[in-house]
Amino acid sequence: MINNISSDVEVEKIKYKVVEKFVSINGEGQKAGQLAIFIRFQGCNLNCVYCDTKWANTNETKYELMSASQIVDYIKSTKVKNVTLTGGEPLRQENIIYLLKQLSLLENINVEIETNGSVNIAEVKKINNSPSITLDYKLPESTMEKYMDLTNYEYLEKKDTVKFVCSSIGDLNKAKEIIDKYNLTSKCKVYLSSVFEKITPAEIVEFMKENNMNDINLQLQMHKYIWDPNLKGV
Ligand SMILES: C[S@@+](CC[C@H](N)C(=O)[O-])C[C@H]1O[C@@H](n2cnc3c(N)ncnc32)[C@H](O)[C@@H]1O
Ligand SMILES: Nc1nc2[nH]cc(C(=O)O)c2c(=O)[nH]1
Ligand code: SF4
Ligand SMILES: [Mg+2]
């Protein structure tokens, strides 16, 4: 994290590793169906079995080094008002808090971060006009459950989302247990999503009906239905 940034020159030296940036419709989350700018950062501290962006996580991946002001200029050039920061794991980018502060100053721009649930969000929440957070809880079949930082649930606000990406009925049972234990529906939005081609949306709906899961949203990754699910940049 960078403290006491003293000059514009110093600030321009801070660079973020961007593996792709594009405009599409948001296929996920509270702004699903709306135009959004995607900034995808390189590298991740986890390795989920189902990860659909493993290519972004390797050291060999080509990336563009962008300063906060270059990212801001790109955002302004698109004339699109929703921004999704994703990856990889965006909150593992060095000095990401500085970028988030710059983005929080932009008028009429709505910023959200997709984060994996293992990184503490306390510093993000200290920012005025902080971005909304979509916080994954990595379920057993991801093999990454042991890394979840459950202290993050103290900071959740109505504008945030906890998302459970499910591969099986076992995962759904675990999601329900966590939702109930932390009373998540009273704190923020709660989404259930399917690992593409591992469990059908119909099976998730059946589970929701059987378990009276009110105040919870089923989420489909819309972009994977619109385009080839393996296509980058959409
Ligand atoms: C690629 S991740 C990047 C952000 C962050 N690392 C995370 O895991 O939240 C963005 C979102 O895609 C979800 N995702 C990744 N692979 C998926 C798949 N095969 N099916 C459904 N969702 C997937 C993740 O769970 C996460 O919610
Ligand atoms: N269209 C589209 N919507 C998305 N919403 C979240 C995405 C992500 O990879 O985090 C994503 C993505 O990759 N594409
Ligand atoms: S945390 Fe996100 S980017 Fe990292 S491996 Fe899991 S799904 Fe992929
Ligand atoms: Mg994606």
Total number of helical segments? Answer: 7
Helix/strand/pairing category: alpha/beta
CATH architecture: Alpha-Beta Barrel
Gyration radius, to the nearest Å? 18 Å
Number of domains: 1
CATH homology-level superfamily: Aldolase class I
Bound molecules: S-adenosylmethionine, the ligand Nc1nc2[nH]cc(C(=O)O)c2c(=O)[nH]1, iron/sulfur cluster, magnesium ion
- Please give the number of β-strands: 9
Average predicted local confidence, pLDDT? 95
Major β-sheet annotation: 9 strands, mixed
Q: Please list the strands of the largest sheet in the order they lie side by side.
A: 3-1-2-4-5-6-7-8-9
Determine the CATH topology. Answer: TIM Barrel
Order of helical and strand elements: HEEEHEHEHEEHEHEH
Strand proportion, as a percent range, falls in 15-25%
Distance between the termini: 31 Å
Task: Name a few traits of the molecule.
binds magnesium ion; binds iron/sulfur cluster; alpha/beta; 234 residues; nine-stranded mixed β-sheet; binds ligand 2KA
Would you mind describing this structure in some detail?
The protein has helices at about 10, 70-80, 95-105, 120-125, 170-180, 200-210, 220-225, and strands spanning about 15-25, 35-40, 65, 80-85, 110-115, 130-135, 160-165, 190-195, 215-220. It has a single domain (about 15-225), classed as TIM Barrel, CATH 3.20.20. The longest helix is centred in the C-terminal third of the chain and has 13 residues, at about 170-180. It has a nine-stranded mixed beta sheet. It is about 25% helix and about 20% strand. It is built from seven helices and nine strands; from the N terminus they run H-E-E-E-H-E-H-E-H-E-E-H-E-H-E-H. The chain is globular and about 60 Å long. The chain is α/β, with parallel strands linked by helices. It binds S-adenosylmethionine, the ligand Nc1nc2[nH]cc(C(=O)O)c2c(=O)[nH]1, iron/sulfur cluster and magnesium ion. Ligand 2KA binds near residues 25, 26, 27 and 223.
